[in-house]
Each structure stands twice: as C-alpha cells, then as structure tokens.
Amino acid sequence: MLKSPPNRSSRWEKDGETTILINDDDRRELPVPVPRMTAGQACLWVLTFLILSSGLIGLVAQSSVTWRGIMQPLEEDQHLAFPEASPAGLVSSWKSTNETITTPTESAQTPISTSTPTPSNTKEMPCIPGLYDDMLVVIKTGASVMYDRALVHIHTTLRCIPHTLLISDAEMDIGNYHFVDVIQDLDPDTLAHEQLEYYRLQQSALQKNEDLGALAQRSKGKAWDLDKFKFIPMVKRAWQARTPQTKWFIFLEADSLVDWANMKIMLDAKDSDKPWYLGAPSWINDNVFAHGGSGMVVSHAAMSQSVGKSTEDWMVQWGSAALNECCGDYLLSRAFKSFGINMTSAYPLLQGDNVALAPLMPDLWCRPVVTMHHVKPSHVASYWALAEYSMQQVAEGRRNHSLLWRDIYTIFVEPSMQQYKLDWDNLSLDWEFTFAKHENGSEEEKNAFASPGGCEAMCRRENECKQWSHFGMTCKMSRAVRAGEPVKREKGSNALFAQTNHISGWMLDRINTYTKQHAICENGADFKFND
Ligand SMILES: *[C@@H]1O[C@H](CO)[C@@H](O)[C@H](O)[C@H]1NC(C)=O
Ligand SMILES: *[C@@H]1O[C@H](CO)[C@@H](O)[C@H](O)[C@H]1NC(C)=O
Ligand SMILES: *[C@@H]1O[C@H](CO)[C@@H](O)[C@H](O)[C@H]1NC(C)=O
Ligand SMILES: *[C@@H]1O[C@H](CO)[C@@H](O)[C@H](O)[C@H]1NC(C)=O
Ligand SMILES: CC(=O)N[C@H]1CO[C@H](CO)[C@@H](O)[C@@H]1O
C-alpha cells in the first residue's frame, strides 16, 4: 500500500534502515553489521562485540538497575498493547480515574454501578431516537473478511445508527444487515477485465457454497485488489440511500473505529450545505487525498454537486477508472476534485492510527477520539464498552464530549507502562542514532546505537525524550509517547545479544510528570482542525 497515516509518511519510510543488514551466517561470526570499517572503527566494533557478547554484564554496566531483569522471560501481558478487559472491568477502571470523567452534574447518579461486575452491569444502553438521523453511515468490507471484521460493528458501532449502508463485493446477509455487492454496478467491460478475475471466482464460489475466506487465502491478496473498485459505486449507492434528513455521509471501513458522540460534535459545528469532503490526508506523489480507513465524511452539498448531478454520469466517468489507479480513496479524491470539491483535512480527529501507534502524548492528549484505523474486532468491543457510557452522557448533556485520547492512555496504556519491553517496537521517531551516521560521533552517540542501555542513557540526556527503542545498530528516541507493538523476535536470536532484538523503553518519571501536569484539559476537548 502506498498510503501512510498523515504527518508520518516520511518518518515511517525510514524504518527500512533499522532492519538487520546481515544474513544469518554472517551474524554468527560477527554479531554487528559493519558496512565500512577502518582500523579505528574496528576497535569500536571489537569493544562493542565484547560488551554485547558479555551480554548481561555489558548491559548492566551500561545502565545498572535498568537491565537487571533482561534475562527474565517475557510475561504474557507484556504482549498486549491494548488489553482486552471485560467491559464492566473497563468501565469501572475508567470511572475510578475520577478527574477524567467527573462532571459537575454527574456525581450522584451514574448509570453504571461500580460494584462487582455482573452481566447486568454491562447491559446495552438504550438508543436515543433521532440522535443520529442526519448521518448515513457506510461501512465497506469484503466478503472474505466480513465475519472477521464487520460482525462486531453490528453489535456496537451500528447498534444505534438508524441509517446504514453496508458495502461489499458479494450480496450477503448477517441477520437483518444486508451487504451490497457494488462491484456489479461496474460496466460489463470493466467486469470482464482480468483485474476482476477474483470477483468472478468469488461469484462462482458463492454459487457453490464454498468458503470465501479459504478462497481468499488461496488467492493470496487478490481479494484486497477488489477494494479499489468499490469506492465509486459505493458513493453512488450512498447517494441513492440518503433520507430526507441526511446531512452527512460517513464512509468507514470494517477495521475502523468511531466515537459517534465526538463525531456528532465535530459535524454539528460544520454546515452541511457547504461542500465538505473531510478526511485524514494521505499523499501519493504530490496528490493529497482523504485516507479511506481513517474515515471520510462528505456533506450533502458535496454529494449533490458531484454524484448527485447524475449517478449515471458519475459511473460512466469514474467507474472504470479504478483499473488505472492503485487505490480507491485516491481515485475518489480525483472524482470529487473534478467537481471542484477539494478535501479538507480533519486530522487528527479523523486519523488512521490505532491505540498502539497513535502519538498519545503530547500530540493527541486533549483531542477527542473520533476515528481510529487498523482496529481489531476485540478492540472495537473494548472501546465500545467504554464509549457507550460516555456517549450516553453526552446525549444527556452531562458531558461536553466523549472520550479523549488521554482517557485512552489512562485506561488502555498506562496500566502496562514499564521501564522497558523486550521484543517491542514501532515507537520512536524524533531522534535517530545509527552506525552509518554516528560512527565518528561522541561517546554518547556511539553508545546509543551500540546498545539498549546506551540508547536509554541518550534518551535520559535529552530533556524532551520520553521513549526510546533499540534494534540492530540503531537507537531511536521520541518526544511523543506511543504504546507500540510486540515485534517477533528474529529466528535463532537470543535475548543476550541485544542487537538482534527490538527493545523499547519509556522515561516513566517524565511521563508521570506530564500526566500530572496535564491531568485537566483546561480548554476542554480540542475539536479544532484546519479549515
Ligand atoms: C479522585 O477523587 C478522590 C476523592 O474524591 C480525590 O481525593 C482525588 O484527588 C481524585 N483524583 C483526581 C485525579 O482528581
Ligand atoms: C482545489 O485545489 C486546487 C489546487 O489543487 C485549486 O486550484 C482549486 O481552486 C481548489 N478549489 C477550491 C474550491 O478551493
Ligand atoms: C460544557 O461547556 C460549557 C461551556 O464551555 C461549560 O460551562 C460547562 O461546564 C461544560 N459542562 C461540562 C459537563 O463539562
Ligand atoms: C568517519 O570517519 C572516517 C575516517 O575519517 C570516514 O571515512 C567516514 O566517512 C566517517 N563517517 C561518517 C559517517 O562521517
Ligand atoms: C507502522 C509501522 O511502522 N509498523 C512497523 C512496526 O514494526 C514492524 C516490525 O519491525 C514493521 O514490519 C512495521 O512496518
């Protein structure tokens, strides 16, 4: 995929540098990658080798107490970036962070009891009639992943949304929820094209009652290739499915997560009679477009000035264009642009990170959660258990907003924060120390890339550094706190040899200072975006 979340594309691209540079055979002889080596550097490498091969001793020497536990086996919960707790447990732990949620009017009468969780504590909230009538919510998925991804939304995201449209590449049903095959809306020439071979395979598998998930696995990635063809007919179907009340068309994917109360606050501040096409910007070359997985929101005016002029022309002009494009969301931005409708960035309200990857602190701290992407069904459910309660409070006027990212930090991330985690990465971006760039650097710089302890020490030296990660001969550090994700340990590697493992660490004291100093979002939730 060419797409990357906003403000991150260039930085993440650099990730390639951190992958190990040598193959397994070389590694046995020389535990560090050495691109070009002079005599002086050779000394450094010998030294490094000694430090690293003395393993624990070397690490302990680098930063005493920190590395005491490095040989201990991983505990199971270290692998959970986003723990899956029971809904009742989550809600009560959230409620125990009293400052976060206590509002002046709430105190005496909270609808959820904090007593021992029982199933009745987690009973669904009643839907409030009419609340979301002005939205048409469109979720796009594919027949091969429908049960894996879309099912959870039926019981959560979509439960109180009266007007929905489910887009797929085969006609299917889950209970009352119908999934529409929009590929069939393409013209016959496009349908016959080789790029749609998977669609035809899937059609015949459906007729024979074959397992579509298994078909997708056999066809390795071909199912995903259908995705780009769905966007143009999806927008046509959405226009046709509007009701007299529809002001906003909200396009999501089945691995997106949404907080409706925050979404509604965001949209109520905008005029749907203006041609809004809101999204999280992504770029292909220099062309900006709204990233599909982050959620795209199109106003009634924008729809009526484009697809609404003539659904036939819309399909004739843009339906087959997917044959020549990589990505459907990019194609859609071109289609809207041809009607004079440019995307407006709603980042970071609409955004494509999940809990593990989002820069929780300080960037998102007082920002409301509106969308996330790459969210597992279990996490949609966990989030929902919490958001349903806060959304209800917003609807009752007892809160001015639903969940903020700092609530996400407090509930899902803080409990598993620790000084360091083994086999953990995707964190740190603001500083980078590598052999290639710092082979002639200061002692501190050389130590930083040479070992996790040196990397941690370097982070300690930078006042603003809140976390670091070490892998190979690279140390990365960052101002923002990201929860990160487990990384699979390289085959045959050993915890003793630090550079074959990802290790990430946090400056817990700095992080705690930040959370204390920013315990209150003094200006409330920050719903601003540039427009
Ligand atoms: C939570 O409430 C208790 C008791 O009301 C109070 O002592 C404590 O300071 C509060 N915590 C925060 C973070 O406000
Ligand atoms: C949309 O963007 C293009 C440049 O990419 C600009 O020329 C055009 O005026 C913009 N249209 C509107 C309505 O702002
Ligand atoms: C909501 O916002 C208003 C105006 O900013 C403020 O006066 C009020 O206290 C807030 N209500 C809650 C429950 O936070
Ligand atoms: C480090 O110094 C050596 C010898 O002077 C030189 O060949 C090499 O290019 C330098 N490396 C960097 C990254 O500047
Ligand atoms: C978003 C991102 O950068 N993900 C990376 C996390 O780390 C794994 C393993 O190092 C990479 O494969 C991902 O691309």
UniProtKB/TrEMBL annotation:
| Listed transmembrane segments | 39-61
GO cellular component terms listed in the entry, alphabetical order: membrane
Q: Which InterPro entries match?
A: C1GALT1/C1GALT1_chp1 (IPR026050)
Predominant location of this chain? membrane
Its record classes its membrane topology as: Single-pass type II membrane protein
Q: Which UniProt keywords apply?
A: Membrane, Signal-anchor, Transmembrane, Transmembrane helix
Species name: Meira miltonrushii
Record-given protein name: Glycosyltransferase family 31 protein
Q: Which family does it belong to?
A: Belongs to the glycosyltransferase 31 family. Beta3-Gal-T subfamily.
Question: Where is region (Disordered) located?
Answer: 102-124
Its subcellular locations are: Membrane
User: Compositional bias (Low complexity) at which positions?
Assistant: 110-122
